[in-house]
Write a structure and sequence with these properties.
With about 400 residues, the protein is α/β, with parallel strands linked by helices. The protein is about 45% helix and about 15% strand. The chain is globular, with a radius of gyration of 21 Å. The structure holds tryptophan.
């Protein structure tokens, strides 16, 4: 690559069929995003059985169903994290969210459910970045509004059950002014990346505001351990593992290019697929279209009517046709949601078999899904109700973490 950054293809079109950038995900074919193709284009690695076996042997834990089912499907140098775990060398987790709505939808929970599990398995510190500045720069929102959304989103994140002794959550607008060491790393990163490079990686053009062009350094900085002196002191060699949606990879390709130049290890990554919209697997859920998503604030009734009305069916057009030809689990959104959230492998496999053979009708699949989502959302709402200002203050105050 001319810019020297691993794979300058964040903004790319694959045979005009799919477009994946941090700000836009579109698949035009009706089979959805081609993830194998994306791995090739991005230059990442597939999470294979060998890696999963090694993980299970080292940690003594069965791999999470997100890994077993290919929901976290790609990585960059995850084996290096396993090496460190084996050698008892320190590392930490880093993930984040761009607060673009007050309410999260169930798809937004994927990285957080998974990161919480990783934190438990590895027993390591975790930092969570809310990029309110990013949403301010990209959307038609005021600073005040993005700050307020970050605070609401933080409650939802805390409700996922992170360990307060090992988790630091921050919003950029709050934290950058509090931590000179963080900003110094932002500037160090900015000096290493040219405009031509970010143009290549992110597709920025001459009419993009300069805030956008400078922003990637702010998402990169949390991957350098000395950005958090209250956790890691001046240590530069604490490795970083980032679970994220594959659309965020461009930020971290850039980070992996810069980190060694600044004397830090390259961050390692675990990538997830996108969570499909109710309307079909061609696009991901969007918080801006209320009918494309199940929100964590939805009532039982709303969940029921949205799934029944909008969840795209892979079943036959008529009962007769369905019984004869069977359903297509690959495109059936209800089945796909069960794949994400039904933890019981045997139950899921039975549904897959019976739906594929035509024995099980879409209505039954939807009924199972509705019950599961209602339970999940209720559990979340109960947990969220306990997140007081005091609890938020604990998670967001810069402090040392136990590990
Ligand atoms: N840019 C991400 C978003 O819009 C938010 C984010 C910041 C993030 N840091 C991250 C996501 C690290 C994953 C990992 O959602």
């Amino acid at each position: 690559m001319s810019s020297g950054v691993e794979g300058d293809v964040a903004k790319m079109e694959l045979g005009d069929e799919q477009l994946v950038t941090p700000w836009n995900v579109v698949a035009n074919s009706n089979t959805g995003i081609d993830y194998d193709k994306l791995i090739v284009q991005f230059g990442s690695q597939k999470i294979g059985t060998e890696l999963i076996d090694r993980f299970e042997k080292l940690t003594g834990r069965k791999a999470h169903h997100f890994i077993r089912r290919g929901i976290f499907f790609s990585h960059r140098e995850f084996e290096k994290i396993l090496d460190r775990y084996e050698q008892k060398k320190p590392f930490y987790l880093y993930t984040g969210r761009g607060p673009s709505s007050d309410a999260l939808h169930v798809g937004h929970l994927i990285p957080f459910i998974f990161t919480k599990w990783l934190q438990e398995v590895f027993n390591v510190p975790l930092v969570i970045q809310l990029t309110d500045d990013e949403k301010f720069l990209w959307k038609d929102l005021t600073v005040e509004k993005t700050l307020a959304m970050a605070k609401e989103n933080i409650k939802d994140i805390i409700a996922c059950g992170f360990d307060p002794d090992k988790t630091f959550i921050f919003s950029d607008f709050q934290f950058l002014g509090q931590c000179p060491e963080f900003y110094r790393n932002v500037a160090r990163i900015q000096r290493q990346v040219t405009f031509n490079q970010v143009k290549g990686i992110f597709g920025f053009g001459g009419s993009d505001c300069i805030g956008k062009i400078a922003f990637p350094a702010i998402q990169a900085a949390p991957a350098l351990s000395n950005s958090f002196p209250f956790i890691f002191g001046e240590q530069k060699d604490v490795a970083c593992l980032i679970p994220c949606g594959i659309d965020q990879d461009p930020f971290f390709r850039m980070t992996r290019d810069v980190a060694p130049k600044l004397g830090h290890p390259k961050p390692c990554l675990l990538h997830s697929v996108f969570f499909p919209a109710l309307q079909g697997i061609q696009t991901k859920m969007s918080a801006s279209d209320p009918n494309s998503s199940i929100f964590l604030t939805d009532t039982d009734k709303q969940i029921k009517s949205k799934v029944n009305k909008y969840a795209f069916s892979g079943g036959g057009a008529t009962v007769e046709e369905h019984k004869e030809k069977g359903g297509n689990c690959d495109v059936d959104v209800s089945f796909q949601y069960l794949r994400f959230f039904l933890e019981d492998d045997d139950a899921l496999e039975k549904i897959r078999k019976d739906y594929t053979s035509g024995e099980l009708l879409t209505g039954y699949l939807k009924k199972d899904l509705i019950e599961l989502l209602q339970k999940m959302v209720k559990t979340h709402q109960t947990a969220r109700a306990t997140v007081t200002d005091e609890v938020i203050a604990k998670f967001t105050s810069p402090r040392s973490l136990k590990f």
